[in-house]
Design brief:
Number of helices: 10
CATH architecture of the largest domain: 2-Layer Sandwich
Helix content: 25-40%
Pfam families: GFO_IDH_MocA
CATH class of the largest domain: Alpha Beta
Mean pLDDT: 93
Structural class: alpha/beta
Low-confidence stretches: none
Radius of gyration: 19 Å
CATH topology of the largest domain: Dihydrodipicolinate Reductase, domain 2
Strand content: 25-35%
Largest sheet: 9 strands, mixed
Number of domains: 2
Distance between the termini: 43 Å
CATH superfamily of the largest domain: Dihydrodipicolinate Reductase, domain 2
Protein name: Gfo/Idh/MocA-like oxidoreductase N-terminal domain-containing protein
Shape: globular
Strand order of the largest sheet: 14-13-12-11-7-10-9-8-15
GO molecular function, one term: nucleotide binding
Organism: Candidatus Daviesbacteria bacterium RIFCSPHIGHO2_01_FULL_36_37
Oligomer: single chain
Length: 296
């Protein structure tokens, strides 16, 4: 049995609680939140506390899920690193590259998994398999909602989604980040991966309809992965212009993420090193908002 400490009591914390109900080999032992009022809204039988000391004195904690505001991630990661337990942290991993450097000093080889949930979506994983024998030419991502966050910026809220996908598909760092367009609640940025490998994303907090869509263009097909639509994967063939909708597994991506988290050993996907790269790109994108172009 894997005993888990959960940090946070927001909507994602509730999702983790509900999802872990489907894992008989794991359970949440204790939940830490800022206020007792927040804790009272959580379902489940576990210790509820507003004091970090109550979590740290637990003798049977094997892993921790950090689902608190982004500004607190560094503090909690630093604390639990010293305990030597597995850490799953919501995106954004941290809020600066400086925080990453401090984490690395505490424990260079940390067993950290970052919750880039779209990487664990069955439709995306199918795309990865299908494009192995094709040449990727262009990547596009759109992400919108009408839910501005107080604990982070638009870029650091939505940016990890496209950046983690692009990084995973191209398997290399971009050469530069370039601002394409910016308004109060919307940003458009392109990333230059070199060798004519194109990518761009548009994200915003100004849409009444939530959108989370990835388009992968190759020399043979255009794959459209729409996380909030059914069917969520469409393939447009460039030879004959046929459109198909392949069968995709229905396992929720959060279930896949937790299943991966509960495995023993080091993580190969969305791990600490991957989180460092995503953070570097986010910082470059942030600078490009002021300077239009920033080299990595």
């Amino acid at each position: 049995m894997t005993n888990i400490a959960l940090i946070g009591a927001g909507s994602m914390a509730k999702n983790y609680i509900n999802t872990l109900d489907h894992f008989p080999n794991a359970r949440i032992s204790i939940v830490l939140a800022k206020t007792k009022n927040n804790l009272s809204k959580l379902p489940g039988k576990f210790i509820k506390t507003t004091k970090i000391e109550d979590v740290l004195i637990q003798k049977n904690i094997d892993a921790v899920i950090i689902s608190s505001p982004a500004s607190t991630h560094f503090k909690f990661i630093s604390l639990f690193q010293k305990m030597g337990i597995r850490i799953l942290v919501e995106k954004p991993f941290v809020t600066s590259l400086n925080e990453v450097k401090k984490i690395k000093k505490i424990k260079p080889k940390s067993n950290i998994l970052i919750a880039h949930t779209l990487l664990f979506h069955p439709a995306y994983q199918l795309i990865k398999k299908l494009v192995k024998n094709e040449k990727i030419l262009n990547l596009k991502f759109e992400g919108y909602n009408n839910n501005p966050r107080k604990d982070t910026t638009l870029l650091w809220d939505w940016g990890p989604h496209p950046i983690s996908l692009f990084l995973d598909l191209y398997n290399k760092m971009p050469k530069s980040a370039n601002l394409e367009n910016k308004s109060k609640n919307e940003i458009s940025i392109s990333l230059d991966f070199g060798n004519n490998l194109k990518s761009s994303f548009r994200i915003g907090w100004n849409s009444p309809k939530k959108i989370r869509k990835l388009e992968v263009s190759t020399n043979k097909n255009i794959y459209i992965f729409d996380d909030l639509k059914y069917p969520n994967l469409e393939i447009n063939s460039l030879s004959g212009f046929n459109i198909s909708y392949p069968k995709v597994e229905t396992t929720p991506p959060l279930n896949n993420l937790i299943s991966y988290f509960l495995r023993s050993g080091r993580y190969n996907t969305s791990n600490f090193d991957f989180g460092v790269k995503v953070t570097k790109i986010l910082e470059a994108c942030n600078k490009s908002i002021k300077n239009r172009t920033t080299k990595l």
